[in-house]
Amino acid sequence: MINLTAKNALVTGIANNRSIAWGIAQQLSSAGANLGVTYLPDERGKMEKKVAELTAPLQPSLFLPCNVQDDEQIQATFDAIKENWGRLDVLVHCLAFANRDDLTGDFSATSREGFRTALEISAYSLVQLAHYAKPLMTEGGSIVTLTYLGGVRVVPNYNVMGIAKAALEMNVRYLASELGPDNIRVNGISAGPIRTLASSAVGGILDMIHHVEAVAPLRRTVTQLEVGNTAAFLCSELSSGITGQIIYVDSGYEIMGM
């Protein structure tokens, strides 16, 4: 059994009960981790209320607003971790965004601002969060992010998000190299297509899921909890020799040629 008792784990990116981040948070909690959860603040407080109600059964000891486009909020998040926990053991990065207009049509029509936004939120944010997490991971730690096959192969309508995921995967390798001497491991999970709030912006997501169900060796796609299981493994001592890797959790679809 995976044991994360006495581990402090920060989970970002929970939006609703379909979020992969939600599946990860559940499995980390089941393994005994002390959870902290961040949410994307909005003017009406709708996201705060939604995420608070969803995560309440897990009893997170920290519940913090964190917009990764706001340096002050990032700083405040890690200041709260230092003040309340003293150290951080696990960081789960489940953040991605691209303008809907940049996820359809010709890739060459991607706007400058759309390209910048997708790369900043979906890829650079991992670098930012790792920078702030590093001095708090005084006893080593594990950083896990989420990627997708569209970062290494062309997927219809994935467009600029594919570029962002490619950058994210390279971030994993550079961060693993930098942080390894401090016993901090950095890995990514490449999950198969799942119906989430983020994936709903990708045109033809249901067709993608049905295709995976027909072609993948297991003849199905995966669930949020299956991705959560792999994340819990990567956050535990059972994976102590693994870093800089992209682990595919996609029912084997990645191995198929046709």
UniProtKB/TrEMBL annotation:
- According to its UniProt record, in which pathway does this protein act? Lipid metabolism
Q: Which GO terms describe its molecular function?
A: enoyl-[acyl-carrier-protein] reductase (NADH) activity
Instruction: Name the InterPro entries on file.
Output: Enoyl-ACP_Rdtase_NADH, NAD(P)-bd_dom_sf, SDR_fam
Gene3D superfamilies in alphabetical order: Enoyl acyl carrier protein reductase (1.10.8.400), NAD(P)-binding Rossmann-like Domain (3.40.50.720)
| UniProt name for this protein | Enoyl-[acyl-carrier-protein] reductase [NADH]
Higher taxonomy: Bacteria, Bacillati, Cyanobacteriota, Cyanophyceae, Nodosilineales
Per UniProt, the enzyme's principal EC class comes to oxidoreductase
**Per the UniProt record, which residue ranges are transmembrane?**
none
User: Could you tell me the EC number(s) of this protein?
Assistant: 1.3.1.9
Which reaction equation describes what this protein catalyses?
a 2,3-saturated acyl-[ACP] + NAD(+) = a (2E)-enoyl-[ACP] + NADH + H(+)
Which CDD domains does the entry mention?
ENR_SDR
The UniProt family comment states: Belongs to the short-chain dehydrogenases/reductases (SDR) family. FabI subfamily.
Query: Keywords, A to Z?
Result: Fatty acid biosynthesis, Fatty acid metabolism, Lipid biosynthesis, Lipid metabolism, NAD, Oxidoreductase
